Amino acid sequence: MKNALFVPRKIQTHRYLFHVAHPIFREGIVEWGLLAQDRDYSIIPKGVYAHNLMSNPTYDWYPFVYPFAHDEELGKMYGDNPIRAYDYWRIDTQIIDNDWFIDYAARNDFAPFLGYDPNSMYVYTNKDVSLRALTLFRFQNEVCWDYPGEKGTFHYRAIDEFRPFN
């Protein structure tokens, strides 16, 4: 039975949302996209869950609040930095016709640990997200270079380490 506390409230999200996933799920996501999952005997609605944020991932993002054993192992492979270990699937909401709702379960669970009300930070859709709306992002080594400009000046360019994954 679903809990009445989690009545869906449709919201307008940013154009881009991010779904955080363990890399072991990459092959399945590349094949089928993000599938709305349902959990038996759960008050959490069936859906694809995402972050409605404009910033690069930080420790405020789930699943970094409560690392699980497999997350800690993955983090050790990346210098004890689990943020660098995960896949981040950017969802372009303009490509798909999905309604988005506030994820009250995450909002209520994580607010005390974050120290603020995350309001519309956690969202979900009750429909699958097509692969055509997804771009895989990862933290990668920063790329930078300098080059000579006109009249003896030098210019510096860098590509952010959080970017689409090749």
| Element order: H for helix, E for strand | EEHEHHEEHEEEEE
**Biggest β-sheet description:** 4 strands, antiparallel
Given as residue ranges, the uncertain stretches (5+ residues, pLDDT < 50) are none
Shape: globular
* Straight-line distance between termini: 43 Å
Report the structural category.
Answer: alpha+beta
Number of helices: 4
Query: What portion of the residues fall into strands of 2 or more residues?
Result: 25-35%
Q: What is the CA-based Rg, rounded?
A: 18 Å
Question: How would you characterize this protein structure?
Answer:
The structure is a single chain. With 166 residues, this protein is of the alpha+beta class. It has helices at residues 26-32, 69-77, 82-85, 104-114; strands at 10-11, 16-21, 48-51, 87-92, 100-102, 122-125, 134-139, 143-148, 154-159, 162-164. It has one domain (4-164). It contains four helices and ten strands, in the order ββαβααββαβββββ. The strands form three sheets. It has a four-stranded antiparallel beta sheet with strand order 1-5-6-3, covered by helices on one side. The chain has a four-stranded antiparallel beta sheet with strand order 2-4-7-10. A hairpin with a 5-residue loop joins strand 8 (143-148) and strand 9 (154-159). The longest helix has 11 residues, at 104-114. It is globular. The chain starts with 9 loop residues before the first strand and ends with a strand.
